[in-house]
Write a structure and sequence with these properties.
The structure is a single chain. The chain is of the alpha+beta class and about 220 residues long. The chain folds into 2 domains: about 170 residues, Sandwich (Jelly Rolls); about 40 residues. About 30% of the residues lie in helices and about 30% in strands. The structure holds nickel (II) ion. Nickel (II) ion binds next to loops.
């Protein structure tokens, strides 16, 4: 899965996050990387236990709670993060795979990873998130407030920044539905149901198909 979710944040939220991050203190991103990723991680991030991280995190989590596409695609059980990061010229994050399990007292299995872009594409050069899946490499650079959601098992990297500054939030999701194929089937069924409801609101099959969705979710969900 590699899914773009546009407009996760509204303009007011983007501005609040950016003004908060402009005053926040950042630390070396390598401090939270795994043993191998540490060797290739060259960025800055806001310490996760800081007040700035807590305030900004609440804005992002609130925006995700109202986003039906995120909910439908991820079927989130637990979220780790968001972690707010910054890339200045020369910074990069080389090829790596994220840790399978993250978190402190509550562990989160990283079924899905997400990057929420906080800088506009024309504010920096380079800095594409490049994700590898079975169809090849995908280079992603989205408008501020938009998010890319991808399988936590994907290898990925952030291209070096050559000018400007790239701000982003990254987070990881443990899904209620662990199996990718099951999760994708539910997402496609949900999207199709939504489209059908628009086109033929009184189709009698809608209730049967909606029941099928919930019964499959009941069969596969772990909470
Ligand atoms: Ni990563």
């Amino acid at each position: 899965m590699l899914l773009q979710i546009p407009g996760v944040l509204n303009q007011g939220e983007i501005e609040r996050l950016r003004s908060e991050l402009a005053q926040a203190s950042f630390e070396d991103g390598a401090s939270t990387a795994g043993f191998v990723a540490r060797e290739v991680k060259r960025n800055l991030q806001v310490p996760q236990n800081s007040e700035a991280s807590r305030k900004c995190g609440a804005i992002v989590l609130d925006a995700l709670r109202r986003n039906t596409m995120f909910y439908s695609a991820a079927l989130p059980h637990r979220v780790h993060g968001p972690v707010f990061n910054r890339y200045d010229p020369g910074m990069t994050y080389g090829e790596h795979v994220d840790n399978a399990v993250m978190g402190g007292t509550v562990s989160v299995r990283t079924d899905l990873a997400a990057t929420l872009f906080l800088s506009a594409p024309d504010e920096y050069a380079g800095g594409e998130l490049t994700v590898h899946d079975t169809f090849g490499a995908h280079r992603v650079k989205l408008p501020a407030g938009s998010m890319i959601l991808y399988a936590g098992s994907s290898t990925h990297h952030v291209e070096p920044i050559t000018s400007g500054r790239r701000l982003a939030a990254v987070l990881w999701v443990q899904s209620m539905v662990r199996d990718q194929a099951h999760r994708l089937s539910l997402f496609e069924l949900d999207i199709s149901l939504g489209a059908l409801r628009q086109k033929v609101p009184d189709a009698p099959e809608l209730s049967t198909l909606t029941a099928l969705y919930h019964n499959l979710l009941r069969m596969w969900a772990e909470t």
